[in-house]
Write a structure and sequence with these properties.
559 residues, alpha+beta, Immunoglobulin-like, 4 domains, ten-stranded mixed sheet
Amino acid sequence: MSPADHEIVLQGNIDSLSEDGVVSGWCWSPDEPDTRRIVSLAIDGFDVVETIAGDARADLAGAGVGDGGHGFHIRLAPGDIPGQPTSVITLRDVATGRMIGSELTVTWPRAAPAPLRLEGNLERASDDGWVSGWAWHPTAPDRRVMLDILVDGVSVGSTRASALRPDLEKAGVGDGKYGFNFALPWSVMAAKGEMRLSVRDAATGQAFGEPVVMRVGRLVDVEDRLNAMERQVRLLQARLVEQAQAADAARDERAARDLFRTVAAFFHDLAEAADPAQPAATMLRHAVGSVLDRHAPFALEVPERPEATVLLLGHGPRAEIYASLVALREAGIDRVADIVLLHDPRQGEDVALLPAIVRNLRYARLKPGADEAAVRNEIAGGARGEYLVVLSSALRPARDAIEILLEALTEAPRLAMAGGLVLREDGRVDHAGFSVDDEGELAERGAGADPDEAGSLDPSSVDAVADLFFAARRSTLLELGGFPLGYAEPDRAVAGLCFALRAQGHDVTIRPQARATRAAGVARRRAPAIEDMRRLRDWRVRNSPPSHGEEGELGDQAG
């Protein structure tokens, strides 16, 4: 077990600042010799950039500083350099908050370095508000550019160009980790019929690429029409309250339901440009009517600055997914997070009708033959929140479960992924993370255990989590290229991501106080594909991620 943070011995220093603005140094703890420390550089007391002290240095290896892979090189951006002649640069270990080594007093050159040349493009703006492109500094290829997204010259949000783009890597554009995605806020789209989109470097204000003109007249028309219809619905609902005991109450209720059917039919007809006189439109109305007979319409809130994006995995029937959406709304998750439904049509085509009765629900549909991991990466890239929460529609999280996972990521900079504790209907443990057994297989930890027995409530490190309920730091996920492609089962793709995170020095844990219960009658996951397990074993042999020592009581019961 590692010593407590305040007992950890830390060594390191800022060694130099070159004329072109590159700060070099190192950081290492002899108590955790294999850990690559995350460090923060501050100028005159203001943090300007973080990085991992993981560069190989022969001088450190020769001096007995671990394996020597504890150096760092940070190139300062022009906007990081203050206007005064001299400054004090300090180095801090992010995990403990302690200063490392000595301060470095520097005298800046009289003329600030020339701005870094920015290359890239704003490539696409889809009808549903997903903006994507790429950006990089050719002379500073290791620096990830923070971008402002502008609508008609006004910033509507920021994102970092750090997602892996294999096409850029293949074209020789650095390491290829320069892609960006951004989801325009619904409020911006609903307020404009036509918008001019552009992108600029947040640090320098330098614009790049050609602006894109996006027309959203149909969406505005939809919003106006729906708002007008909703006012009529509220009037009808008030009438129902007044005449709850009256003989015509049933008739008024039918009228309200018919009005919702009209709203849904209008929305889908407009989106699909269908001719109402055609049989297809008639069939659609009947289908939506059938859904409305079983599920009451409601609206999700849309936070202006969401803390996270919840990716709801719609792998079950419509009723199960609808119940999950209701639970998220009742828990107030829609007030702090965007909610995106990822629908696998093999589980039932009628799930596609849910956005007609759950307003403000973002919807993504898996196409036949598509790799689900690729679709998840696109959603993660366009998410507005700092964190990505993945939740199976088969689970019902406790009211504070998602908040617990987000707090864990906020408080621990090294933590890249936090999984929740999944319980069975009888209250026993269903999933508490995976550990790797002696044969290299993923083994369930604590299956069937009492979740409240001594010791099991403490957070514990794990080798991997299942594709059920977890939260991840979105920027870290994207910098690693997202969920790995090519796995037959999502559980193994998530395990591959966990291995990659841990190999880079990040932590993966289970937070047992963040609980979710498997819904009644829902089957467990399928057995992993043999090819998936072979691929995971090969990856672990090649990369040798660090093993965890003590797993706690739940870990002792793995099997």
